[in-house]
UniProtKB/TrEMBL annotation:
PANTHER family: (S)-UREIDOGLYCINE AMINOHYDROLASE CUPIN DOMAIN-CONTAINING PROTEIN (PTHR40943:SF2), CYTOPLASMIC PROTEIN-RELATED (PTHR40943)
Lineage: Bacteria, Pseudomonadati, Pseudomonadota, Alphaproteobacteria, Hyphomicrobiales
Domain (S)-ureidoglycine aminohydrolase cupin span(s) in chain numbering: 40-112
Compositional bias segments (type: Polar residues): 1-11
Protein name: (S)-ureidoglycine aminohydrolase cupin domain-containing protein
Superkingdom of this protein's organism: Bacteria
Region (Disordered), start-end ranges: 1-25
Pfam families to which the protein is assigned, alphabetical: Cupin_3
Length: 116
């Protein structure tokens, strides 16, 4: 029985979108993304699963994002701030205005909720 107001965050329920960092943001490697966007609501709300293979690229956040790392290891560095290593079990928020880099050391998969 399905409930219209209950949605499982499940990679089997959606085809993944393939992607990669924009060429002008790539720092090293050849990272490839897969995104399973299971929820997209009016007003700019998104939720799902994202995965990246190893590599490093620049990030600039105009949106608010909650992340929960499911697997892998990445290093997120803020310009002028410290580098933070995140791995399975870690949760964090990236706020609008965050600028820096994301480096995937081991293929990383995260759950996310984004609010534009």
């Amino acid at each position: 029985m399905t409930t219209p107001n209950f949605l499982s965050v499940d990679t089997d329920s959606v085809e993944p979108e393939a992607g990669a960092p924009a060429p002008d943001r790539l720092i090293s490697g050849d990272p490839k993304f897969r995104t399973w966007n299971v929820e997209e609501r009016d007003g700019g709300l998104y939720a799902g699963i994202w995965e990246s293979t190893p590599g490093k690229w620049r990030i600039v956040y105009d949106e608010w994002e909650f992340c929960h790392i499911l697997s892998g290891v990445s290093v997120i560095s803020e310009d002028g701030g410290e580098a933070r290593t995140v791995r399975a079990g870690d949760s964090f928020v990236l706020r609008p205005g965050f600028k820096g880099s994301w480096e995937v050391l081991e293929t990383t998969r995260k759950e996310y909720v984004i609010k534009l």
